[in-house]
Amino acid sequence: MILRGLVRRCPFCGHRPIFDSWFKLKESCPHCGHRFNQEEGFYIGAYAINFAVAEGLLLACIIPYIIISSSNPSLKLDALPFALVALVLAIVGPIFFYPFSRSLWIALDMTLRGGRNLDDSWKEPELPEEKRS
Questions:
Q1: Bridge partners of 35?
Q2: Residue 126 within a domain
Q3: Distance (Å, rounded) from C-alpha 132 to C-alpha 80?
Q4: pLDDT along the chain (133 residues), means of 10
Q5: Is 53 within a domain?
Q6: Strands (DSSP E) along 4-128, which ranges?
Q7: What is the number of structural domains in the chain?
């Protein structure tokens, strides 16, 4: 399920597309009917994943600067190129990773719930015949 979430597929059946556009997730999977929007505040975990990825990208820019400048103090290394790359990654990284973080969060939640929705009134999705084994 996690790998399906990482490639923006339905974590339950593997069908795609589950997004109408880069920022618009469908209400449910068009193939198996699994509902993606569980409750208000459900996607806070996706925002946390996206934030962690953005922070990781910033660290990937800052740590080389720190290592290079501390290993050779006589070298007058300009921080501006590192800061500009970090700024671009801080803006572009979360925008690029946004749909991946949402589908990954759905997969993580679904893994913990055993493939069920939070609301019992919603019909539990059924695997297509080719996925049953």
A1: 28
A2: no
A3: 55
A4: 87 87 89 81 91 92 88 81 89 93 90 67 57 55
A5: yes
A6: none
A7: 1
